């Protein structure tokens, strides 16, 4: 009797085989689900962690933007090439820059720059000449600093070899021979090719003859080519972009002008090389 009761109790307490298998499958399924959920969570978080660990390096500015920034910075400088140290009023006076022509030859456009007359000759106001000269030198320096081409011009026979030598020394160009009409305005027909115009024309004398303006001045003004010109009291200063009132006949004055332009061009090219503006 007791043995039969014990067997009945054990049979009731035992778990069927299929139930145990289902339990094991349920545990395995739960573990797989938890693993896949953790993988999905890690896949969502890992890109963020990767971005936080490795931040992108800042991209450097292009070379063109750096060059443009350097060029713009020079324009903010009041005297980047030190042209104010090249000349003063005493230097202008000693070079006879103040001496003009006979008062009867005075051009109306030069009246604002005349201080007075002495023994029938006009005297140029050097207080106006000095800042205008510094402005012309500063413009020349900035044109050269940006790689622009200069053209020195004069029709005076006595300074012809000096102007050509000046252009060779600074690595620029000169034109001291008779001007052929249409050299600027009709260059493609005269020379059979597209012309390369200078960025700045520097006239050490703005007259072709005693009563005629240099044809290069007229053609440059028609094509809007900037010009720097030494204008005497008998010259027309209106077509010149940057006029410099001064004596254009005295050898001392002409040597003085050429020395200033030589210095500023060489300074500008040296600064261009030092700043790496190519």
UniProtKB/TrEMBL annotation:
This is Ribosomal protein S2. The keyword Ribonucleoprotein applies. GO terms for biological process: translation. Pfam families: Ribosomal_S2 (PF00318). GO terms for cellular component: mitochondrial small ribosomal subunit. It comes from Elysia chlorotica. InterPro entries: Ribosomal_uS2, Ribosomal_uS2_bac/mit/plastid, Ribosomal_uS2_CS, Ribosomal_uS2_flav_dom_sf. HAMAP family: Ribosomal_uS2_B (MF_00291_B). Belongs to the universal ribosomal protein uS2 family.
């Amino acid at each position: 009797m007791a043995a039969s009761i014990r067997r009945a109790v054990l049979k009731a307490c035992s778990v069927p085989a299929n139930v145990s298998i289902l339990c094991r499958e349920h545990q395995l399924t739960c573990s797989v689900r938890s693993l896949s959920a953790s993988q999905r969570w890690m896949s969502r978080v890992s890109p963020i962690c990767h971005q936080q660990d490795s931040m992108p390096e800042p991209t450097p500015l292009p070379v063109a933007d750096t060059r443009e920034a350097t060029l713009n910075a020079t324009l903010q400088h009041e005297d980047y090439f030190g042209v104010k140290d090249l000349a003063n009023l005493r230097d202008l006076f000693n070079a006879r820059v103040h001496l003009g022509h006979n008062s009867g030859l005075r051009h109306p456009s030069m009246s604002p720059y005349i201080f007075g007359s002495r023994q029938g000759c006009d005297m140029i106001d050097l207080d106006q000449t000095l800042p205008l000269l510094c402005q012309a030198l500063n413009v020349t320096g900035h044109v050269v600093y940006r790689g622009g081409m200069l053209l020195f011009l004069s029709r005076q026979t006595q300074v012809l070899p000096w102007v050509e030598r000046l252009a060779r020394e600074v690595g620029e160009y000169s034109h001291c021979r008779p001007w052929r009409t249409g050299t600027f305005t009709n260059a493609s027909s005269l020379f059979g090719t597209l012309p390369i115009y200078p960025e700045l024309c520097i006239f050490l004398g703005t007259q072709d003859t005693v009563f005629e303006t240099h044809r290069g001045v007229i053609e440059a003004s028609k094509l809007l080519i900037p010009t720097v010109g030494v204008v005497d009291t008998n010259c027309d200063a209106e077509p010149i972009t940057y006029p410099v009132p001064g004596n254009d006949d005295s050898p001392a004055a002409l040597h003085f002008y050429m020395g200033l332009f030589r210095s500023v061009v060489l300074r500008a090219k040296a600064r261009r090389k030092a700043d790496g503006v190519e």
